[in-house]
């Protein structure tokens, strides 16, 4: 059976979003901060559910690349960087490796990240080592 070896996350909203129209279960808690391990000081219902199953993540098997954007306000314009960085708490302790790539500037905007040359190069290097 195939096994996950590499995982790339781009602009993930793991700890929630700040939109008023989203359900409370996925809203990012107001004033949320992360500790050194990426653990949020407050968690929404969805993130709490993910913490309950994090021990099922394959141990020592998966290399993780977490790509986040910062347009200058600790956000990619849609997702707060703290929400994206909270992936660390969910997977880093069991991952083979965990690395964050922060893209900055106007091309770091949420919907532009998938068309960003810096992101493309990082993906190619990470996935295929070229």
What does this protein structure show overall?
The chain is α/β, with parallel strands linked by helices and about 130 residues long. It has one domain (about 5-130): Alpha/Beta hydrolase fold, catalytic domain (Rossmann fold, 3-Layer(aba) Sandwich), CATH 3.40.50.1820. It is built from 4 helices and 3 strands; from the N terminus they run E-H-E-H-H-E-H. The protein has helices spanning about 45-50, 80-85, 85-90, 115-130; strands at about 5-10, 65-70, 95-105. It has a 3-stranded parallel β-sheet. Helix 1 (about 45-50) links the parallel strand 1 (about 5-10) and strand 2 (about 65-70). The longest helix is centred in the last third of the chain and has 12 residues, at about 115-130. The chain starts with 5 loop residues before the first strand and ends with a helix. About 25% of the residues are buried.
Topology:
Blueprint: E1 6-10, H1 45-52, E2 63-70, H2 81-85, H3 87-91, E3 97-104, H4 117-128
Parallel strand pairs: 1-2, 2-3
InterPro entries: AB_hydrolase_fold, DUF915_hydro-like
GO molecular function: hydrolase activity
Keywords: Hydrolase
Shape: globular
| SSE sequence, one letter per element | EHEHHEH
Class based on secondary structure composition and strand pairing: alpha/beta
What strand line-up does the widest sheet have? 1-2-3
How is the CATH topology named? Rossmann fold
CATH architecture level-2 label: 3-Layer(aba) Sandwich
Arithmetic mean pLDDT: 96
User: How many helices in DSSP terms?
Assistant: 4
Oligomerization status of the protein chains:
single chain
CATH superfamily: Alpha/Beta hydrolase fold, catalytic domain
């Amino acid at each position: 059976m195939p096994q996950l070896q590499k995982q790339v996350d781009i602009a993930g909203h793991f700890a929630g979003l700040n939109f008023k129209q989203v359900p409370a279960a996925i809203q990012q808690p107001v004033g949320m901060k992360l500790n050194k391990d990426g653990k949020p000081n407050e968690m929404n219902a969805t993130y709490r559910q993910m913490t309950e199953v994090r021990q099922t993540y394959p141990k020592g098997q998966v290399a993780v690349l977490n790509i986040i954007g910062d347009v200058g306000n600790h956000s990619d314009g849609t997702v707060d960087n703290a929400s994206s960085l909270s992936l660390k708490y969910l997977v880093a302790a069991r991952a083979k490796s965990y690395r964050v790539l922060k893209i900055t500037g106007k091309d770091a905007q949420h919907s532009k990240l998938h068309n960003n040359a810096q992101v493309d190069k990082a993906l190619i290097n990470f996935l295929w080592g070229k």
